[in-house]
């Protein structure tokens, strides 16, 4: 075989190999182009700055309650249903109206309206999704309630016996405490609070001439009592009662109105009374007299569609307080009335000056 023929054969083989390589490369490039074109376009989500999220994500099937109504101190479990994966979280827009736990349990705090957000957090498959539930919190029903209130305690002899009496009947009351006595008997104040009674502010010294000397003097006395009660119970009170009532003759009405305006602005409710048992009289009336006089005023309040707020005292010389309390509870309890602390009261308050 001549050199010329050998060269032609080598050329033909090389040309064939080159053609095969070119064809292989051509088909690989075409396949790559087809694959790229068939991919789903990548766009940025409207709520996400990421540019690598698919154009269409599934929306979660999140179903929640539309509207919820509950009372103060009552609970309601939110229903939040969804398909697929994700983490549900809850958030109250106003914790002063309603609180919400991690598992969606609502608790009424104060009458009012707000929203609770129910969120389904994205797990990569779903968009983060949120629905709002409108929540209305109503005041407790006190249409068949009598509020027993006690001033000038606590005392070491009367108040514990009174607490035993209330506990025996599953009844609750309100104690307007004197600061100096509360300092002497913090354990009694704490017991009353722990057993569900309302602790309220009366005065620190109960010295009329001192506390009513000026608005500043009254507020100073008030602040001292407030701090003491909060220290003992861990809770700031909501109610206060002027010694002698709001219309007491020791100060002018303008000063009393000014004090009420200041304390109302701080979230306090003034509370005089609309039922007297006359146990403030110097002759220490008997339990029978207290019940007779008190029942007359209670019946008048009920007939006028008013909620009875009964004034009694638990200072050390008010030895008939427990017997009178027992009789009131038995008499009106048999008529369908219950006895609560003022923590269940959300009205405007009762003052003799209004």
Task: Give a brief rundown of this model.
The chain has 354 residues and is an alpha/beta fold.
Total DSSP helices: 9
In N-to-C order, the SSE pattern is HEEEEEEEEEEHEHHEHHEHEEHEHE
Instruction: Please tell me the CATH architecture of the largest domain by its name.
Output: Alpha-Beta Barrel
CATH class of the largest domain: Alpha Beta
Binned, the helix content reads 25-40%
Whole-number count of domains: 3
Q: What summary fits the major beta sheet? A: 6 strands, parallel
Mean pLDDT: 86
CATH topology of the largest domain: TIM Barrel
Radius of gyration computed on alpha carbons: 38 Å
The tally of beta strands, per DSSP, is 17
| Gross morphology | elongated
Name the beta content range.
15-25%
> Structural class, judged by helices and strands?
alpha/beta
| Sequence stretches where pLDDT stays below 50 over 5 or more residues | 29-51, 53-59
The span between the termini is 132 Å
Characterize the structure shown:
- This protein is an alpha/beta fold and 354 residues long.
- The protein folds into 3 domains: 1-39; 63-138, Sandwich (Immunoglobulin-like); 145-344, Glycoside hydrolase/deacetylase (TIM Barrel, Alpha-Beta Barrel), CATH 3.20.20.
- It is built from 9 helices and 17 strands.
